[in-house]
Write a structure and sequence with these properties.
Layout (H helix, E strand, L loop, with lengths): L3 H11 L8 E2 L2 H7 L2 E6 L9 H10 L3 H6 L1 E4 L3 H12 L4 E6 L4 H9 L3 E5 L6 H12 L2 E2 L6 H17 L5 E5 L4 H13 L4 E7 L4 H8 L22 H10 L2 E5 L1 H15 L9 H7 L7 E6 L6 H9 L2
Parallel strand pairs: 2-10, 3-4, 3-6, 4-5, 7-8, 7-10, 8-9
Antiparallel strand pairs: 1-2
Helix pairs in contact: 1-3, 1-8, 3-5, 3-8, 5-6, 8-9, 9-11, 12-13
Protein backbone atom coordinates (compact mmCIF):
# COMPACT_ATOMS: atom_id res chain seq x y z
CA UNK A 1 0.00 0.00 0.00
CA UNK A 2 1.20 3.50 -0.76
CA UNK A 3 0.51 6.37 1.63
CA UNK A 4 0.15 10.15 1.44
CA UNK A 5 3.85 10.61 2.30
CA UNK A 6 4.82 8.64 -0.83
CA UNK A 7 2.78 10.98 -3.00
CA UNK A 8 4.20 14.04 -1.27
CA UNK A 9 7.72 12.72 -1.93
CA UNK A 10 6.79 12.20 -5.58
CA UNK A 11 5.52 15.79 -5.75
CA UNK A 12 8.93 17.00 -4.64
CA UNK A 13 10.70 14.89 -7.29
CA UNK A 14 8.56 16.12 -10.15
CA UNK A 15 8.40 19.73 -8.98
CA UNK A 16 9.66 22.05 -11.71
CA UNK A 17 9.71 19.20 -14.24
CA UNK A 18 6.07 18.12 -14.57
CA UNK A 19 3.47 20.77 -15.33
CA UNK A 20 1.01 21.84 -12.66
CA UNK A 21 -1.99 21.41 -14.92
CA UNK A 22 -4.95 23.81 -14.89
CA UNK A 23 -8.35 23.24 -13.32
CA UNK A 24 -11.26 24.40 -15.46
CA UNK A 25 -14.90 25.09 -14.70
CA UNK A 26 -17.94 25.46 -16.94
CA UNK A 27 -21.35 26.83 -16.01
CA UNK A 28 -22.87 24.66 -18.72
CA UNK A 29 -21.26 21.54 -17.24
CA UNK A 30 -22.39 22.57 -13.76
CA UNK A 31 -25.94 22.90 -15.02
CA UNK A 32 -25.92 19.51 -16.73
CA UNK A 33 -24.35 17.78 -13.73
CA UNK A 34 -26.35 19.66 -11.09
CA UNK A 35 -23.11 20.29 -9.24
CA UNK A 36 -20.06 22.49 -9.00
CA UNK A 37 -17.58 20.66 -11.24
CA UNK A 38 -13.82 21.17 -11.34
CA UNK A 39 -11.97 19.61 -14.28
CA UNK A 40 -8.29 18.75 -13.81
CA UNK A 41 -6.93 18.88 -17.37
CA UNK A 42 -4.03 16.44 -17.64
CA UNK A 43 -4.18 16.85 -21.42
CA UNK A 44 -1.85 19.79 -20.72
CA UNK A 45 0.73 17.61 -18.98
CA UNK A 46 4.10 16.86 -20.61
CA UNK A 47 3.53 14.11 -23.13
CA UNK A 48 -0.16 14.99 -23.22
CA UNK A 49 -1.27 12.83 -20.28
CA UNK A 50 -0.92 12.23 -16.54
CA UNK A 51 1.49 9.35 -17.17
CA UNK A 52 4.55 11.62 -17.10
CA UNK A 53 4.15 12.09 -13.36
CA UNK A 54 4.57 8.41 -12.51
CA UNK A 55 7.21 7.74 -15.16
CA UNK A 56 9.46 10.57 -14.00
CA UNK A 57 9.01 9.67 -10.34
CA UNK A 58 10.03 6.06 -11.07
CA UNK A 59 12.98 6.72 -13.38
CA UNK A 60 14.39 9.58 -11.29
CA UNK A 61 14.43 7.19 -8.32
CA UNK A 62 16.69 4.69 -10.11
CA UNK A 63 20.43 4.60 -9.55
CA UNK A 64 22.65 6.25 -12.15
CA UNK A 65 24.08 2.87 -13.19
CA UNK A 66 20.57 1.54 -13.81
CA UNK A 67 19.56 4.61 -15.81
CA UNK A 68 22.74 4.32 -17.86
CA UNK A 69 21.70 0.83 -19.03
CA UNK A 70 18.29 2.14 -20.08
CA UNK A 71 14.64 1.45 -19.33
CA UNK A 72 11.89 -0.55 -20.98
CA UNK A 73 8.13 -0.08 -20.86
CA UNK A 74 5.04 -1.52 -22.51
CA UNK A 75 2.18 0.77 -23.44
CA UNK A 76 -0.41 1.60 -26.08
CA UNK A 77 0.80 5.18 -26.07
CA UNK A 78 0.60 7.52 -23.09
CA UNK A 79 2.93 5.65 -20.74
CA UNK A 80 5.18 5.08 -23.75
CA UNK A 81 5.52 8.79 -24.42
CA UNK A 82 5.95 9.57 -20.73
CA UNK A 83 8.78 7.07 -20.30
CA UNK A 84 10.48 8.30 -23.49
CA UNK A 85 10.41 11.92 -22.29
CA UNK A 86 11.49 11.09 -18.73
CA UNK A 87 14.35 8.90 -19.95
CA UNK A 88 15.66 11.68 -22.18
CA UNK A 89 15.46 14.24 -19.38
CA UNK A 90 17.36 11.88 -17.07
CA UNK A 91 20.10 10.96 -19.57
CA UNK A 92 18.76 7.45 -20.05
CA UNK A 93 17.39 5.60 -23.08
CA UNK A 94 13.99 4.01 -23.57
CA UNK A 95 12.77 0.91 -25.40
CA UNK A 96 8.98 0.77 -25.72
CA UNK A 97 6.88 -2.28 -26.52
CA UNK A 98 3.73 -1.08 -28.31
CA UNK A 99 0.79 -2.94 -29.89
CA UNK A 100 0.73 -2.95 -33.68
CA UNK A 101 -2.68 -1.25 -33.65
CA UNK A 102 -1.68 1.55 -31.27
CA UNK A 103 -2.91 4.97 -32.42
CA UNK A 104 -0.54 6.29 -35.08
CA UNK A 105 -0.20 9.66 -33.36
CA UNK A 106 0.95 8.00 -30.14
CA UNK A 107 3.47 5.71 -31.86
CA UNK A 108 4.92 8.57 -33.90
CA UNK A 109 5.18 10.79 -30.82
CA UNK A 110 6.95 8.03 -28.89
CA UNK A 111 9.56 7.69 -31.61
CA UNK A 112 9.80 11.46 -31.82
CA UNK A 113 10.74 11.60 -28.14
CA UNK A 114 13.72 9.37 -28.91
CA UNK A 115 12.51 5.90 -27.90
CA UNK A 116 13.04 2.66 -29.80
CA UNK A 117 9.61 1.15 -30.51
CA UNK A 118 9.17 -2.64 -30.65
CA UNK A 119 5.78 -3.81 -31.94
CA UNK A 120 3.68 -6.81 -30.85
CA UNK A 121 0.18 -8.21 -31.49
CA UNK A 122 -2.01 -7.34 -28.50
CA UNK A 123 -4.64 -9.91 -29.51
CA UNK A 124 -2.32 -12.96 -29.58
CA UNK A 125 0.76 -12.03 -27.54
CA UNK A 126 1.35 -11.05 -23.91
CA UNK A 127 3.10 -7.71 -23.45
CA UNK A 128 4.07 -8.69 -19.91
CA UNK A 129 5.88 -11.82 -21.12
CA UNK A 130 7.58 -10.08 -24.03
CA UNK A 131 8.51 -7.09 -21.87
CA UNK A 132 10.05 -9.25 -19.14
CA UNK A 133 12.05 -11.21 -21.71
CA UNK A 134 13.33 -8.09 -23.50
CA UNK A 135 14.27 -6.41 -20.23
CA UNK A 136 16.29 -9.44 -19.17
CA UNK A 137 17.96 -9.90 -22.56
CA UNK A 138 19.00 -6.25 -22.83
CA UNK A 139 19.68 -5.54 -19.16
CA UNK A 140 17.00 -2.85 -19.01
CA UNK A 141 14.95 -1.69 -16.03
CA UNK A 142 11.25 -2.39 -16.52
CA UNK A 143 9.04 0.63 -15.84
CA UNK A 144 5.54 -0.78 -15.46
CA UNK A 145 2.61 1.39 -16.51
CA UNK A 146 0.76 1.15 -13.19
CA UNK A 147 1.71 -1.78 -10.96
CA UNK A 148 4.58 -0.04 -9.19
CA UNK A 149 4.46 1.98 -5.93
CA UNK A 150 6.58 4.81 -7.37
CA UNK A 151 4.38 5.05 -10.45
CA UNK A 152 1.18 5.05 -8.37
CA UNK A 153 2.63 7.72 -6.07
CA UNK A 154 3.54 9.88 -9.05
CA UNK A 155 0.04 9.65 -10.47
CA UNK A 156 -1.38 10.60 -7.08
CA UNK A 157 0.11 14.08 -7.46
CA UNK A 158 -2.86 14.82 -9.76
CA UNK A 159 -5.19 14.70 -6.76
CA UNK A 160 -2.66 16.45 -4.52
CA UNK A 161 -2.72 19.47 -6.84
CA UNK A 162 -6.48 19.36 -7.37
CA UNK A 163 -7.30 19.26 -3.66
CA UNK A 164 -4.77 22.00 -2.97
CA UNK A 165 -6.67 24.21 -5.42
CA UNK A 166 -10.20 23.00 -4.58
CA UNK A 167 -10.02 21.54 -1.05
CA UNK A 168 -13.75 21.15 -0.40
CA UNK A 169 -14.55 18.43 -2.95
CA UNK A 170 -17.02 15.77 -1.88
CA UNK A 171 -16.53 13.51 -4.93
CA UNK A 172 -13.44 12.69 -7.00
CA UNK A 173 -13.86 10.93 -10.36
CA UNK A 174 -11.05 9.40 -12.44
CA UNK A 175 -10.58 6.95 -15.32
CA UNK A 176 -9.59 3.36 -14.55
CA UNK A 177 -7.40 1.19 -16.74
CA UNK A 178 -4.77 -0.72 -14.82
CA UNK A 179 -5.68 1.31 -11.75
CA UNK A 180 -2.55 3.35 -11.08
CA UNK A 181 -4.10 6.80 -11.46
CA UNK A 182 -7.08 6.16 -9.24
CA UNK A 183 -4.96 4.29 -6.68
CA UNK A 184 -2.69 7.30 -6.27
CA UNK A 185 -5.56 9.77 -6.31
CA UNK A 186 -7.67 7.76 -3.85
CA UNK A 187 -4.72 7.55 -1.47
CA UNK A 188 -4.44 11.33 -1.42
CA UNK A 189 -8.18 11.99 -1.32
CA UNK A 190 -8.94 9.60 1.54
CA UNK A 191 -5.98 10.93 3.54
CA UNK A 192 -6.88 14.61 3.16
CA UNK A 193 -10.68 14.26 3.11
CA UNK A 194 -11.75 10.92 4.66
CA UNK A 195 -15.41 11.60 3.86
CA UNK A 196 -14.83 12.11 0.11
CA UNK A 197 -16.26 9.57 -2.36
CA UNK A 198 -13.81 8.27 -4.96
CA UNK A 199 -15.44 6.95 -8.13
CA UNK A 200 -13.65 5.22 -10.99
CA UNK A 201 -14.89 5.02 -14.58
CA UNK A 202 -14.23 2.22 -17.09
CA UNK A 203 -15.45 1.61 -20.65
CA UNK A 204 -18.31 -0.90 -20.74
CA UNK A 205 -16.20 -3.44 -22.62
CA UNK A 206 -13.31 -3.12 -20.15
CA UNK A 207 -14.95 -3.44 -16.75
CA UNK A 208 -12.30 -5.70 -15.21
CA UNK A 209 -11.88 -3.54 -12.10
CA UNK A 210 -15.63 -3.37 -11.41
CA UNK A 211 -15.88 -7.13 -11.80
CA UNK A 212 -12.85 -7.65 -9.58
CA UNK A 213 -14.21 -5.42 -6.81
CA UNK A 214 -17.54 -7.27 -6.94
CA UNK A 215 -15.78 -10.65 -6.78
CA UNK A 216 -13.30 -9.60 -4.09
CA UNK A 217 -10.40 -10.81 -6.22
CA UNK A 218 -8.76 -9.90 -9.51
CA UNK A 219 -10.81 -10.98 -12.52
CA UNK A 220 -9.26 -11.35 -15.97
CA UNK A 221 -11.24 -10.51 -19.13
CA UNK A 222 -10.52 -10.60 -22.86
CA UNK A 223 -8.78 -7.60 -24.43
CA UNK A 224 -11.56 -4.97 -24.43
CA UNK A 225 -12.78 -3.75 -27.80
CA UNK A 226 -13.35 -0.06 -27.12
CA UNK A 227 -12.31 3.30 -28.54
CA UNK A 228 -10.71 4.01 -25.15
CA UNK A 229 -7.37 2.46 -26.16
CA UNK A 230 -5.65 3.62 -22.97
CA UNK A 231 -8.12 1.65 -20.82
CA UNK A 232 -7.82 -1.75 -22.48
CA UNK A 233 -6.47 -3.53 -19.41
CA UNK A 234 -7.46 -7.18 -19.13
CA UNK A 235 -6.96 -7.36 -15.36
CA UNK A 236 -6.31 -4.89 -12.53
CA UNK A 237 -2.74 -4.67 -11.34
CA UNK A 238 -1.91 -6.73 -8.27
CA UNK A 239 -0.66 -3.72 -6.33
CA UNK A 240 -3.24 -1.27 -7.66
CA UNK A 241 -6.10 -3.62 -6.81
CA UNK A 242 -4.86 -3.93 -3.22
CA UNK A 243 -5.13 -0.14 -2.92
CA UNK A 244 -8.35 0.32 -4.85
CA UNK A 245 -10.35 -2.34 -3.03
CA UNK A 246 -9.71 -0.37 0.18
CA UNK A 247 -9.97 3.22 -1.05
CA UNK A 248 -12.25 3.39 -4.11
CA UNK A 249 -15.94 3.63 -3.29
CA UNK A 250 -17.44 2.70 -6.65
CA UNK A 251 -16.58 1.99 -10.28
CA UNK A 252 -19.09 2.81 -13.02
CA UNK A 253 -18.93 2.24 -16.77
CA UNK A 254 -19.72 4.21 -19.92
CA UNK A 255 -20.37 3.22 -23.52
CA UNK A 256 -18.23 4.24 -26.48
CA UNK A 257 -21.10 6.46 -27.69
CA UNK A 258 -21.18 8.24 -24.32
CA UNK A 259 -17.41 8.73 -24.51
CA UNK A 260 -17.76 10.41 -27.92
CA UNK A 261 -20.53 12.63 -26.53
CA UNK A 262 -18.16 13.70 -23.74
CA UNK A 263 -15.34 14.41 -26.19
CA UNK A 264 -17.73 16.51 -28.24
CA UNK A 265 -18.91 18.44 -25.19
CA UNK A 266 -15.36 19.14 -24.01
CA UNK A 267 -14.39 20.39 -27.46
CA UNK A 268 -17.50 22.47 -28.12
CA UNK A 269 -18.09 23.97 -24.67
CA UNK A 270 -14.71 23.92 -22.92
CA UNK A 271 -12.35 24.05 -25.93
CA UNK A 272 -10.46 20.96 -24.73
CA UNK A 273 -9.16 18.27 -27.07
CA UNK A 274 -9.42 15.03 -25.11
CA UNK A 275 -8.74 11.45 -26.17
CA UNK A 276 -11.40 8.77 -25.55
CA UNK A 277 -9.71 7.36 -22.44
CA UNK A 278 -9.36 10.84 -21.01
CA UNK A 279 -13.05 11.64 -21.46
CA UNK A 280 -14.63 8.71 -19.59
CA UNK A 281 -15.03 10.55 -16.28
CA UNK A 282 -16.85 13.43 -17.98
CA UNK A 283 -18.94 10.84 -19.86
CA UNK A 284 -20.04 9.31 -16.55
CA UNK A 285 -20.95 12.74 -15.21
CA UNK A 286 -22.99 13.67 -18.30
CA UNK A 287 -24.73 10.28 -18.24
CA UNK A 288 -25.90 10.86 -14.66
CA UNK A 289 -23.84 8.05 -13.13
CA UNK A 290 -22.02 10.36 -10.74
CA UNK A 291 -23.74 12.63 -8.22
CA UNK A 292 -22.41 15.16 -5.74
CA UNK A 293 -22.26 18.84 -4.84
CA UNK A 294 -18.58 19.67 -5.50
CA UNK A 295 -17.08 17.20 -7.93
CA UNK A 296 -13.48 16.95 -9.09
CA UNK A 297 -13.01 15.22 -12.44
CA UNK A 298 -9.71 14.05 -13.91
CA UNK A 299 -9.43 14.42 -17.67
CA UNK A 300 -6.45 12.13 -17.99
CA UNK A 301 -5.08 12.84 -21.48
CA UNK A 302 -5.41 14.44 -24.89
CA UNK A 303 -3.32 12.22 -27.15
CA UNK A 304 -5.58 11.76 -30.13
CA UNK A 305 -4.57 12.55 -33.71
CA UNK A 306 -6.51 15.12 -35.72
CA UNK A 307 -7.81 12.56 -38.22
CA UNK A 308 -8.95 10.14 -35.50
CA UNK A 309 -10.51 12.97 -33.48
CA UNK A 310 -12.51 14.16 -36.49
CA UNK A 311 -13.55 10.58 -37.29
CA UNK A 312 -14.84 9.95 -33.77
CA UNK A 313 -16.69 13.22 -33.44
CA UNK A 314 -18.17 12.69 -36.88
CA UNK A 315 -20.03 9.69 -35.47
CA UNK A 316 -21.96 11.83 -33.00
Amino acid sequence: MIELADVQAAAQRIDGVAHRTPVFTSRTLDGLAGASVHVKAECFQRGGAFKFRGAFNKISSLGEDVRARGVLAYSSGNHAQAVAIAATLLDSSATILMPEDAPVAKAEATRGYGAEVVLYDRWTESREEIGARLAEERGLELVRPYDDPLVMAGQGTVALELLDEVPELDVLVAPVGGGGLIAGCATVAKSLRPEIRVIGVEPEAGDDTARSLAAGERVRIAVPRTIADGLQATEPGELTFAVNRERVDEVVSVSDAEIVDAMTFLFDRMKLVVEPSGAVAIAALLAGRVRGERIGVVVSGGNVGAVRFAELLGRA
